Amino acid sequence: MKFAEHLSAHVTPEWNSQYIRYDDMKELLAQSVAKAQPYADESDNILREQFF
Questions:
Q1: For the SPX domain, which residue ranges apply (predicted)?
Q2: Does residue 49 lie in a domain region?
């Protein structure tokens, strides 16, 4: 079972308005990841140069 299905199946009716709209959140997260700059970790580069 996918998380979105699990979440919607277990919603407490009294709290329904407080739940995150999972599909909207997932889309916003995907857009943010697509726009984000790559993570550059200088220590990773140093380790690669020293050991590989």
A1: 1-52
A2: no
User: Residues 22, 3: contact at Cβ < 8 Å?
Assistant: yes
**How does pLDDT run across 9-52, given as a tens digit for each residue?**
999 999 989 988 889 999 999 999 999 887 776 676 777 777 77
Residue at 41 is within a domain: no
Q: How many domains does the chain have?
A: 1
Distance CA 45, CA 51 (A): 10
Would you call 20 helix, strand, or coil by DSSP?
Answer: coil
Is 7 within 8 Å of 19 (Cβ atoms)? yes
Could you list the residue range(s) of the whole structural domain that residue 3 is in?
A: 1-35
Helices H, strands E: what count in the chain?
Answer: 3, 0
- Tell me the pTM: 0.55
